[in-house]
Amino acid sequence: MNRRQFIAAAVCTIGWPLVGLAQRTGSVPRIGFLGLGKSEDWTDQIEALRLGLKRFGYREGRNLLIEFRWAAEVAELDRHAEELSKLNVDIIIAPASTQVEPALRATRTIPIVFAQHADPVGVGHVASLAHPGGNVTGVSMVLTEMAAKGLEILVEAQPGTKRVGVLWNLTTPTHARVLSALEEAAMRKSIDLVGAPIRTADDFNRAFELMVNDNVTSVLVPSSPITNARRRSLAELAIKHRLPTMFANRANVEAGGLMSYGPNFNSMYRYVAFFVDKILKGEKPGDLPVEQASKYELVLNLATARLIGVDLPSILIARVDEVIE
């Protein structure tokens, strides 16, 4: 059994023995969670994290405590990261690059684990995937390549497409690299991109109006904590303007978005438990290789396709991994 198979088996095994830090020292370890948005917007991911921890033998409130900090906007993340640092938690879970940066500003000693980082090497959060170094590691997705593939599928869904809007986030450190990858992909397809930058969910309406006024015929939304959390608002805007929209997160399609191409986010949050367990047992985050999501799925909401009047090519529908009616 190789290392990846071992990890997968461990994460899927019910009743993992109670061998965490609490048993070894008699103390109860504390995990900090640096969230962005409202807690209710992250219910699925938090439950996935709890399930992963449970399968490694950790029961919240019994042999593990989780200190949640929820920032209403990015500007509040530094304060919450400082709070978790001063509490001297054993680990800080900083889900994406947006949260990793303030966590790193707060501490270079407390281990930081990410769950859905788009490009940890590209933005300098780890030295390499195999040897992260420092105090950061976790689970990553290849958002640059994933976004380019999403653009390709979005164009395939609407033959003849020439103008595509990109709803990107100014506060997401990885999005500058994502835009570069999208521009290269668009050039190969002779597609014009219309960038619609946002900072908060309050910018959604303005961004869609900008794209509509610039005559886009579809929209691509690279993954970010804000767009993942406020998925229903985005779906409603896309339906209102009858714009086919490609996301990276399946949850956006469940909320009414047209399509998504990306990894299973809940699986990635369950996987975080592997890193938590290893670190609580004494391993250094810098010695734990970053794990990358290996399976990417295309999900389609047929009800939304009918609602916005999009007739998708049958060859594309045949390739879909999951259809939501």
TrEMBL record:
InterPro entries: ABC_transpt-TYRBP-like (IPR007487), Peripla_BP_I (IPR028082). It comes from the Bacteria. This is ABC transporter substrate-binding protein. It comes from Bradyrhizobium agreste.
